[in-house]
Structures are given as C-alpha cells and as structure tokens.
Write a structure and sequence with these properties.
cytoplasm; coiled coil
Length: 111
C-alpha cells in the first residue's frame, strides 16, 4: 500500500520534468530557426565577415542545445513511460488527475 503514494509522487516528478523539457526543446527549436533566418538575411544583405561568423556560431550553439534537450527529453519521457506503465497496474490510478496528466504529456511528446 505504501507504493501508491511513492508512485503518485514519481508521476508528478517525472511528468513535470518531461513537460519542462518538451517546452524547452520547442523554445530552442524556435530560437534556432530565428537565428538561421537572421544569418541568412545577413548573408543576403552582405554583412561583414565577423558578423556572419558570430551569427553562424550562435546558430551552431543553438543547434547543440536542441540536440542536448532532445536527448534529455527522450530520457525523461522514457522514465515517465515506465512509471505510467507501472501505474496502469494499480486500479486506484484509473481516474487519477496526475496519471491523466502524465498520459497527456506522453501523447504530446509522441508528436
């Protein structure tokens, strides 16, 4: 019986982490697109070499962050999936708000 509160706590923790990383990944993707557009505009406008190198470096750093958050998000979603699978075996979680929220986050991450 003491496993249910621990499972509920893990659901909250893992779903919060997955949700945060999902949002963070989306923000970094948007930032990368914006920086790439800015870099392309600088090329079209004939900006100085230093400005182009700096803009390209920013795009590369942003791409690294997308990769990093993607990896961390994948791990967090995997851990959340494991906890959700474990929670499905408990009948008391059938209508639990945290359980429903965790499943919604898993669906969102699958997209």
């Amino acid at each position: 019986m003491s496993e249910i509160p621990a499972l509920k706590r893990q659901l909250k923790i893992k779903s919060g982490a997955a949700k945060r990383l999902l949002k963070e990944n989306g923000l970094y993707r948007k930032e990368t697109e914006d920086l790439q557009r800015k870099h392309d505009k600088m090329i079209a406008d004939g900006a100085e070499e230093w400005d182009l190198k700096n803009a390209k470096r920013l795009v590369e750093e942003s791409n690294k962050m997308v990769t990093d958050t993607n990896d961390r998000m994948g791990r967090a979603v995997g851990e959340l999936r494991d906890v959700v699978i474990k929670a499905r075996t408990e009948p008391s979680f059938a209508e639990d708000e945290d359980f429903m929220s965790a499943e919604a986050i898993l669906e969102e991450a699958a997209l």
